[in-house]
Amino acid sequence: MPKKVVVLLAEGFEEVEAITPIDYLRRAGIEVTVAAVGTKGESLLVKGSHDILVAADAALDSLAEAQKLDPAFWDAVVVPGGLPGADNLAASAEVAVFLKVMARAEKLVCAICASPARVLAPLGLLAGKKFSCYPGQEAVIPGGPAVAGAELTQDRVVVDGNIITSQGAGTAGEFACAIVAELTSEDDAKKLAEKLLLLS
After folding, report:
1. Beta strands 31-37 and 130-131, pairing class
2. CA distance 150 to 127
3. What is the pLDDT along the chain (200 residues), one digit of tens a residue?
4. 53-55 and 58-59: which strand pairing?
5. Cβ atoms 6, 33 nearer than 8 A
6. Which residues touch 179 (CB under 8 Å, ≥6 apart)?
7. Does the predicted TM-score (pTM) go above 0.85?
8. How far is CA 114 from CA 41, 135, 154, in A?
9. Which helix (H) or strand (E) holds 82?
10. From CA 60, how far away is CA 7, in angstroms rounded?
11. How far is CA 88 from CA 16, 59, 116, 187, in A?
């Protein structure tokens, strides 16, 4: 049975940080559902921070109505960065509840760029964790990472328990491979990276 991942997209998301994990995970045989957050009406189109429109598979509120925001349905959630995308995700009560229940269920919670600081930290999900984010974004955490009980590193990708964080668009491939490694195997992730010329 394939692993299942949901990728959350809100208006203003960083396109590379969303599309790269979607693409890499699907190449690895992982089932990916792209969920639109805060879309108006029936539209599933979400505009990225560089005006690229991406068609989601479902609206997050529709998944909620279908009772599919239970961690039993998912193995991981991916939270792209970008501004104002990260702030739009952080403003969603539905996203907050979902991320918390996923973390409590010890499912993978994966965030990149601004989202570790702007989305995960306010929910307490970085407490006791090492993490990475886009350089400078740690400054938005009230009191800084130490007050949040987190340890900032300069690593491109950090895996600490069920939390995976990464720095930004330029690390999106490594971020995606780290998720693949956790959901399948290190060997599968290495083969994928080699196939995509991510490894020299």
Report:
1. unpaired
2. 5
3. 899 999 999 999 999 999 999 999 999 999 999 999 987 667 899 999 999 999 999 999 999 999 999 999 999 999 999 999 999 999 999 999 999 999 999 999 999 999 999 999 999 999 999 999 999 999 999 889 998 899 999 999 999 999 999 999 999 999 999 999 999 999 999 999 999 999 74
4. unpaired
5. yes
6. 5, 21, 24, 25, 76, 78, 108, 110, 164
7. yes
8. 27, 9, 14
9. none
10. 10
11. 17, 15, 14, 36
Please report the DSSP string for 167-178 in residue order. --GGGHHHHHHH
Q: Which residues contact 71 (CB under 8 A, 6 or more apart)?
A: 101, 102, 104, 105, 107
Q: Which domains, from first to last, does the chain contain?
A: 4-195 (3.40.50.880)
Q: In angstroms, rounded to a whole number, what is the distance separating the alpha carbons of residues 68 and 70?
A: 5
